Every structure is written in structure tokens, then in C-alpha cells.
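Just wondering, can you check both lines?
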Amino acid sequence: MNSIKRAYELILIMIIAWTTIIIFLFIADRYIVPIKLPGYGYMKALLESILKLTLSGALAMVWLQLWIQLIKRYVKRTGH
């Protein structure tokens, strides 16, 4: 019975992780990719790319932190 409960918790963690990654990818596609800065030239393109990279990286770090918290909670509950 204990192994079934642990398997259920791991499945739940994976469902949450995949659901949140899909949501975060949707957010990135919807709000980060279309960002356009005013102006023209190479410097504008560079700044725009750096901004998009920074925002996408921050979003990825939030997702990874969420996943780490889920795993820490699982380890604390199961003692593994």
C-alpha cells in the first residue's frame, strides 16, 4: 500500500510539472515572443533579444524552483 501511495505522489508531481511547463510555454509564446522594441538597427535587435532571453530565463527559473519545491516536499513526506 505504501508503494502505491508513493507512486501516486510521483505521478501527481509529474502531472503538475508537465502542466506548469505547458502553461509557462504558453505564457512565453503569448507574451514574451511578440515583444518588439521601438526603433531599428542592430542595437535594437540585440536589446530585444537580450530582453526576451532574460524574461524566458526568469520564467524557466520559476518553473524549476516550483519543481524543486515539489520534490523537496515529496522527499520530506516519504523520507527518501
Q: What stands out?
A: The mean pLDDT is 92. The chain has one domain: 2-78.
